[in-house]
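Homework-ish question, so no full write-ups if that breaks the rules, but can someone show me the predicted structure for this set?
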Amino acid sequence: MISTTLKICSILLFTTTIIVGGYVFYSLYLDLSSLSFSVSSKLNMDAASINLILNVTYTGRETLRDFTITLTAGNYSETHSLNLKVGSTILSYTIPIEEAFSSSVYVRLSVNYMSIVKINIVSPKINITRVGY
Amino acid sequence: MFSKAGLTRKILVGVLTGCLSYIAYYLIPLLAIRQIIILPTMKIQTVPSGMVGMELFNIWILLSLIILSVATSVFSENIIGVVIGASIPIVMIVYLMSLMNFGVLALEYLGYRVNIDITYILILLAISVVIWSIARVFRYVEGL
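A: Not a homework solution, just the prediction itself:
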């Protein structure tokens, strides 16, 4: 009797985990594939810092709640936490000029999906180049 | 202890169970992981280190499972056989979890480094396997 109950519990737990896991991965696939970024930068008036604009475009189902975007450039690091809405979200970062040109600049996205799956995505190095003077 | 025919039958059952265990505990999970994580069209450059070079046909795992299953079958009326049989799924799920860095998958895709933490899902799967193994031991105890 106990063994049968345990076997039923085991099968139920296994099946539920597979179904929930599959649903979470499918939802993540839908949401993350509907996310796109574009980066632009300009030198600030004080000539000591660079203003980096990160434009996040999202067309998903608004289920990415615990979503953070961190921009790192050497010792400079700034994190924005946001609940993504359909449309464009503009994030602004002010990076000291020495960090922008001497260190690698990259963006890290962190998603904690339903507290079940955690995903970290680190972008390739963002190149900030001087154009003219 | 056993008649010759009885022993042969138990060994054959063990070999068959070992082959089925290989399919259930190694082949299907590995194919599922490859399908989810290593999609060929994604041109993923780096895959979780433990999974590099993993072959679908691994003779050592197959032999180990056959030997353990034969031992389980031969000693099926003994607590030793029950314990060995119950430990096979636990050992296999721990082995598969170790291949996946215990739930943290790291891969690289077109310059993007992606870390996926599925520890909770793997823990739940491991718990269900452990409950199944405990059920097998209980079944033996109830039959005493």
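Now go work out the reasoning yourself. Hint: Helices of chain B lie at 4-37, 59-74, 79-99, 119-142.
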